[in-house]
Amino acid sequence: MVLVGGGAAGLRAAIAIAQSDPRLSIAVVSKVYPMRSHTVSAEGGAAAVVRPDDSFDEHAYDTISGGDWLCDQDAVEAFVHEAPEEMLRLEHWGCPWSREPDGHIAVRPFGGMKKMRTWFAADKTGFHLLHTLFQTSLKYTRVVRYDECFVTKLLVEEGRAQGVVAIELMSGQVRAITAKAVLLCTGGCGRVFPFTTNANIKNGDGMALAYRAGAPLKDMEFVQYHPTGLPFTGILITEAARAEGGWLLNKDGYRYLQDYNLGTPQPHPVLRSMELGPRDRLSQAFVKEMEKGRTIEGPYGPVVHLDIRHLGEKVIKTKLPFVRELCLKYQNIDPITEMIPVRPVVHYMMGGVHTDINGATPLPGLYAAGEAACVSINGANRLGSNSLSECLVFGARAGRAAAAFAANQPEASSAVLAQAADEQRRLERELLHKTDGRERIAVLREEMQQIMEGSAGIYRSGATLTEAARKLRQLQERFRNIALHDHSRTFNTELIAALELSYMLDVAETIVQSALRREESRGAHQRTDFPARDDQRYLAHSLAYRNADGSCRIEYLPVTITRWPPGERVYGK
Amino acid sequence: MSDTITLHVARYRPEVETEPTFQEYQTPCRKDWVVLDALNYIKDKVDGTLSYRWSCRMGICGSCGMTVNGEPKLTCATFLTDYAPGPVRVEPLRNFPIVRDLVIEMSDFMRKLVQVKPWIIRADEKPLSEGEYLQTPEELDEYKQFSMCINCMLCYAACPVYGLEPHFIGPAAIALAQRYNLDSRDQGARERMDLLSDHTGIWGCTFVGECTKACPKSVDPAAAIQRYKLKAALSWFKSFLLPRGAS
User: Fold this and answer.
1) Candidates B48, B139, B180; nearest CB to A441
2) Does the beta carbon of A228 lie under 8 angstroms from any beta carbon of chain B?
3) Scanning A65, A329, A390, A476, which has its CA 20 to 30 A from the CA of B89?
4) What average pLDDT does the structure give for chain B?
5) What's residue B143's pLDDT?
6) For position B108, what pLDDT does the model report?
7) In terms of C-beta density within 10 A (0-12 exposed, 13-18 middle, 19 or more buried), how is residue B17 classed?
8) Are A94 and B119 within 8 A, CB to CB?
9) pLDDT reading at B237 higher than 80
10) Does the beta carbon of A556 lie under 8 angstroms from any beta carbon of chain B?
11) Cβ contact (<8 Å) for A441 and B185?
12) Residues A497 and A431: beta-carbon distance below 8 Å
């Protein structure tokens, strides 16, 4: 088995496989050391029903209404049922979850959730979760890590995935890692946009690998803007700041969310109301405030204020220590005495590699889980704290399913080695040994990011998307003329940056094409030319396929509805 | 303040150089810029061949540790203006082999990490159906500090013992062992003690305390090591008085 990616989903899958089939050897291939994976940056928490006043149905309903009814409800039901056990398992593995005074697990409120069900480890939940998983995975000697190996291609032969080609950064050696099944856990693609909370490594690698191998990408038009990022750096200020009682204020010190059908302001946080509304609606409200001239002009554009001063020093220091640390270090303000300037920032990709409820893609032998995948439980808008739980639940599911598949497969065919040799020659010819290129990587990347921000941001229109599609095609052409100045084999980060850019260009194209074709507004996809939701035509997932000529084709797949027929999204009531 | 600053950046390309050299670059010096922003400026606009690691740019992934003007630093959390008017010298972390430019080889640490068994060890595993292990906030506080390590390697770069004795397990790995030893859910302290009470373990440390000074996350590995020494000494002393394996 080959797992690509060593974040929460990948490591959870690796352990699940190690525990399920003692005959399989497991390779975890990651372009960074696993503890550097972007899971590490998640702050607020992980959702799972735990309290007696809560229920699976309520978690499911919050998730489905939060996702504007684009979630597959069978997947959501499996998710909410399995999440508590996954959280507990992490507890048994040593995750330092925050506790009640009596020693039981503590939970906090979170946006769009009607009950308190977000488990947390202060405000470094992703960090603790990742390190717990990584350290626990070290117990399993059958998990063999290929650290700092960058995957350039999926090997597909006889109609099934049979391994990957990867460059080992340290040596520059290109190697084929063959396998009976491949599981992609590479995370999101926030770096397609200029202003994002995502780490430098979030380039949609797995999405592009699957897309190029013929597997479709699902619901790629749904890009989540988190409402509270620090200006300039894009560093995330966790939703937990609002869950603990933080307020969003415009330039008049007014809690403006009350003007956007999100409820009436109360002194204390109210679940599914005001600052605890869903992220898509809060980010959209920011744009409307800006249009009304009620935001504050900062050195990096308009901002609003996140005010947590009234929570007091003790709450801030115990529940939100990382928020304070980030504000002090990167913004030079102390949130105990000052308001935090924030603006919406690209945070999460609801879409991803199309999988079924067990993480299987339509390409036999290829599986995906975590943010790289779209199962889909997030629909048109993910609720905060559902994604870490998703990584665990579907990482484990995909790991088990892939292991079961692998158990019945023959060894990888020898033809894949010829493919790998071709790939090595391609890398050398088109990139490593190329000396006549003219286009700079950073220039193309910035142009792509500006195109995406201008056309596929919080609000979109047919005209700007059409123009963006044309410009992205030109960038694809220009990429052929890319210039590499670094011809060394040793830790060649310029080569990696070029390959990441090529992945991002493919992913950007699927986002724009999917957004262009969806002529309605739903969740995080808001079309100014089609402002209403249209269940008649678009209660469906988009599937982006790559045509032989490299262009993108969109098809649709019905949403699975089990028990919750599409309704109105109501918050603040 | 001038709006540009000079960086002296260590370069080492093993295919063409036998030892590191320095290269000079001019970059903007903006108020919000950290040293990493300047390196990214160089990489994107001036010299694409410069190699270094980075990822989260928010001080939590631990990738971007380097030596800045002689001190081990996370370059994403080190402001350029603190070094104005410059020049700023940027080198790879000390005490590690250099792979290339600012990239160090850290597989030694990755091996040591496994040696300290950084996972929960229990004689009897409670089934999930019986719920969580209870742990009060006070019990959590016992080990919490030592669970904050981001494996950034700054403490190894600062540690004079590790520089001279590469077999020394080192501050972060010992702190991690202590993180599990002090966790009320763990029963593996005795197993870890065998390794750590060796001369390459805690007794290698001469208590210089540089690790704690270098730590960007206030983990205080030096305290972990001292606490461990005390416990090890006590248990050795007790075994002397009560030779039948009492602890």
Assistant:
1) B48
2) no
3) A329
4) 92
5) 96
6) 96
7) exposed
8) yes
9) no
10) no
11) no
12) no
CA distance B52 to chain A (A): 8
CATH, domain range B4-104: 3.10.20.30
Per-residue tokens: A152? 């350039």
Say whether A94 and B151 touch across the interface (CB within 8 A): no
**Is this model's pTM higher than 0.90 or not?**
yes
**pLDDT for res A23:** 87
Please give the pLDDT value at position B240: 59
Min distance A351 CA to chain B CA atoms (Å): 22
Task: Name which of A424, A32, A172 is nearest B13 in CA terms.
Answer: A172
Interface A:B, Cβ pairs < 8 A: 158
Please tell me the predicted confidence (pLDDT) of residue B194. 82
Contact residues on chain B for A485, CB-CB shorter than 8 A: 47-49
Partners of A103 on chain B (C-beta within 8 Å) are 134-136, 139
DSSP-derived letter for residue B84 is T
CA-CA distance, A265 to A256, in Å (whole number)?
9
Tell me the residues of chain A between 323 and 342 that have a Cβ less than 8 Å away from chain B: 325-326, 329-330
Q: Which of B13, B49, B133 sits opposite A91 (nearest CB)?
A: B133
In which residue are the tokens 């995948």 written? A373
Q: Tell me phi and psi for residue B36, to 5 degrees.
A: -60, -35
A317-330 confidence digits (pLDDT tens): 999 999 999 999 99
Q: Where are the domains of chain B?
A: 4-104, 107-241
- Looking at the complex, report in whole angstroms how far the Cα of residue B169 sits from the nearest Cα belonging to chain A: 17
CB neighbours of B81 closer than 8 A, spacing ≥ 6?
Answer: B1, B29, B31, B33
**Crossing angle of helices A386-407/A125-137, nearest 10°?**
20
Query: Would you state the pLDDT for residue B241?
Result: 62
* Coil vs helix vs strand at A115: coil
Query: Is A491 close to B43, i.e. CB distance below 8 A?
Result: no
What is the structure's pLDDT at B233? 77
- Cα gap B76→B62, rounded to integer Å: 10
Average pLDDT, chain A: 97
A-interface mutation test, from B120, B139, B215, B219, most A Cβ less than 10 A away: B120
Token digits for B137?
A: 């906030």
> Please, which pLDDT band fits residue B245 given cuts at 50, 70 and 90?
very low
B127 preceded by cis ω (within 30°)? no
Cβ-based neighbour number of residue A331 at 10 Å = 20
Give the residue ranges of chain A where pLDDT is below 70: none
CATH architecture of structural domain B107-241: Orthogonal Bundle (1.10)
pLDDT score, position B227: 85
CB contacts under 8 A, A 287-306 vs B, are: none
By C-alpha distance, which of A161, A276, A268 is closest to A572? A276
Q: Where in the sequence numbering do the catalytic residues of A fall? A: 226, 242
- Tens of pLDDT, residue by residue over B168-193, are 999 999 999 999 999 999 999 989 98
Q: Which of B60, B118, B143 sits opposite A127 (nearest CB)?
A: B60
CA-only gyration radius of chain A, Å: 23
Residue of A62, A56, A104 lying closest to A82 (CA atoms): A56
Count of other CB atoms within 10 angstroms of residue A114? 17
Mutation choice for A interface testing from B31, B56, B125 by most A CBs within 10 A: B56
Q: How confident is the model at residue B242 (pLDDT cuts 50, 70, 90)?
A: low
- B204-236 residue pLDDT tens: 888 889 999 999 999 999 998 888 888 877 776
Nearest by CB to B118, which of A38, A135, A326?
A135
Contact by Cβ (8 Å): B68, B89: yes
pLDDT at B198 over 90: no
E runs forming strands in chain B? 4-11, 21-28, 65-68, 71-74, 88-91, 98-100, 103-104
Contact A523, A539 (CB under 8 A): no
Task: Identify the closest residue of chain A to B57 by CA–CA distance.
Answer: A199
